[in-house]
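step 3/5: co-fold with biotin
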Amino acid sequence: MHPLLLTVIGRLGADDFVSGEAIAHELGISRASVSGLVRRAGNFGVRVLSVPGRGYRLAQPFEPLDESRLKPVLAPVGLHVQCLPQVDSTNTRLAALAAAGAPHGTLLAAEWQTQGRGRRGRDWRGILGASLTFSLLWRFERPVSALAGLSLAVGVALVRAMRALGATGVGLKWPNDVLVGETKLAGILIELTGDMLGPAAAVIGIGINVRGGEALSERVGLPVADLEAACGRRLQRNAVLIEVARQMAEVLRLFEREGFAAFRDEWASLHLWQGQPVAVHAPDGRVILGRAAGVDAQGALLLDSGAGLMPILTGDVSLRRTR
Ligand code: BTN
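step 4/5: write tokens
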């Protein structure tokens, strides 16, 4: 991303047109550079309306991540917030900071990721100013082996936050996708480090589509949901980040004390496919059919295959249509 792109977008509003000349003058660059930057905004999913003689206006308002607003609210709950314009992946960057000794509770948010990562080696993409991408570092006294179900508990935190913001129809799909109906609204990527006996560190990466679901669907070629549509109102990204981060901190503290067992019933109540016929696509290519029957205390999906409950530890689950 060009270093001035965020400045130019930040200078534009969604209500009034601003002339290219005024921006060029303010930033000490040429009008041609301003028009080049405005054209580039489209590569990041930002739509800028341009009217000859009037200038430029954003199709949607742009609200940058604002450390000065986030820090005073999140510091009292033990989170150390840092916002960057661009990183490869907030998970990758935070893992490096963690290895260099970053404190427990470090939260790294970025306006843009050049190599955002999803689960199972997939990409994670967003729209500049319309998505939230951040990672939280949580250090545990317990070893990695004692953190089963962590990603499911984080899913509970996300749904709690979204409901608190007014979302309806939001739930979970095992292991930790946040969906509206069958459409993905947010994803969680947890990366753990630590040895079998010693303390562990989790880098908990969260990607949320706050608005612009339709535009994002076009970019990724898949149906995508967004939080504003689920809430039926305009949201501020900083406010969403605050609510999600607070709920995560609360859930992680309880998880530290009681593990996933403390969230098992709530998780099942939020499971959108509970009791539904599903197909589990195992990493070895096998497809196992059954009904989703909740999760065990370790967060494994319990699949009712007709011959008893089978715990599924890893795999992709899809809904099976029955006629
Ligand atoms: C998924 O596949 O559902 C998980 C998506 C996780 C995306 C987030 S965005 C912030 C953090 N940084 C990354 O590179 N990935 C996670």
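step 5/5: annotate
The mean pLDDT is 94.
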